Backbone:
């Protein structure tokens, strides 16, 4: 797997589209949310809120499953990596379930069954593919997907806390809360209104965690390279369509503005490109990982 395989020309089109959306949102963020948010939650919005972050946690689980398949010479290393792999996989499934149930509590049993099924299938799939494909290919895939998803989750969730942008639904419900552009932190407002009893989560609009989690589905592009069959283009367009639906649903729910979902998508996209550059070939990062896991 060479680096160039991870950077097809249509990446430029995705980057250009995100820049256009960012420019539009920078001018018309509030007006767009005003027209799309009715003040009520919708079934469409709740369903995609429940589904949105699953790809990012599957990506983390993909890294965990890889650790379960490695066979280091050292018994201590072997035990450590097995425990770490099991921990990562279990934690990813548990957090994904918690996030999904929080979005759709009225269907918690269905969400539980669906989440369990998705992760069992993912674990079995990755386990079989890792065992059957070239070990170097498996390592590169696992490194790219795990790094890409972890970096995306860390950056997006860190930015949410630091930036403190108020959500559209809070502005809609409370006339005293002032709209902020994406480049304007809202920490002062958060301090003021949280002291009055408003949930601090209502000041986590920028960037969108659900959209970033959905954008982690870009790892679908790598499956054909791992399995030796399938279409990279199909994986790309499934990811784009799914992420676009999640992003749109977040705006209609009043949870995010256009710039929130656009920049979170961009963060995930850049993290994917960085991971592909670092681990998409016979790179130093891969060689270090091979020695560590030997």
Residues:
């Amino acid at each position: 797997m060479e680096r160039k395989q991870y950077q097809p020309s249509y990446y430029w089109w995705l980057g250009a589209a995100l820049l256009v959306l960012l420019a539009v949102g920078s001018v018309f963020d509030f007006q767009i949310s005003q027209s799309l948010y009715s003040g009520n939650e919708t079934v469409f919005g709740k369903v995609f809120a429940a589904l949105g972050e699953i790809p990012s946690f599957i990506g983390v689980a993909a890294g965990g499953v890889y650790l379960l398949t490695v066979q280091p010479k050292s018994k201590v290393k072997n035990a450590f990596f097995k425990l770490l792999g099991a921990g990562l996989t279990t934690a990813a499934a548990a957090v994904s379930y918690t996030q999904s149930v929080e979005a759709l509590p009225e269907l918690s049993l269905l969400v539980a069954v669906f989440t369990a099924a998705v992760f069992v299938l993912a674990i079995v799939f990755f386990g079989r593919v890792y065992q059957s494909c070239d070990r170097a290919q498996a390592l590169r895939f696992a490194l790219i997907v795990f790094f890409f998803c972890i970096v995306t989750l860390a950056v997006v969730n860190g930015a949410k806390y630091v930036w403190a942008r108020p959500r559209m639904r809070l502005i809609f419900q409370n006339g005293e809360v002032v709209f902020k552009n994406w480049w304007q932190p809202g920490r002062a407002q958060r301090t003021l209104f949280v002291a009055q009893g408003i949930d601090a989560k209502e000041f986590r609009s920028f960037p969108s965690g659900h959209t970033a989690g959905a954008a982690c589905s870009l790892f679908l592009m790598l499956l054909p390279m791992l399995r030796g069959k399938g279409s990279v283009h199909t994986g790309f367009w499934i990811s784009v369509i799914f992420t676009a639906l999640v992003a749109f649903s977040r705006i209609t729910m009043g949870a995010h503005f256009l710039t929130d979902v656009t920049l979170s998508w961009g963060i995930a996209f850049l993290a994917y490109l960085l991971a592909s550059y670092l681990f998409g070939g016979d790179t130093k990062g891969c060689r270090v990982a091979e020695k560590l896991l030997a």
